[in-house]
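Question (not urgent): is this output format expected?
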Amino acid sequence: MPDPNDDFDEIEQALRQAAKDHRIELEDGDEPEEVKLELGNYADPSMSDEELAIKQADLESKLAKISAESGLPDVDENADPSELNEVEVELDERLKKLETSAKAARANEHLRIGDQAQQRKAERSAALGLGIGMSIAYAIIGMPILGFFVGMLLENSAILANGKMIGALVGIVLGFGFMIVQLKRYSDRQ
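Got this back:
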């Protein structure tokens, strides 16, 4: 199961990178290698300049789409520095809100995972107790019945007088002995 915290970390990193990238201005004299470095994961050193231009255009269209969806005003390169500061402040506020919600989501996820682990442990313990209880019940009921039938066979073959009663008593003793052994094993596991 993928860890949800990784998603939050990726989102946070992407937002921080986008904020940094927003302030980067490319010079006309930049070499393709420098552009490739600035494109990060989208650029492969073995890409041709044509492929790189396609990727860059794709990234610029995605950035324009995100910018349009964000509701932030478009900022001109020659804009007033105070206007840039307002945009930066708004981006910082949004980033802080996102960080706060990501921390809250992480905390909730940790609590949920802890609760699930406790619930699984309780269910495991209950299932083990139920299994042991059922095996003890079968032994207490089954052993005397088995002893009775063995005693009946011995009595019918004239090997043992009162074989049914003796077989049932031996079965009862064995059933209770089995119960004591199983309960001791169960208590030792706890």
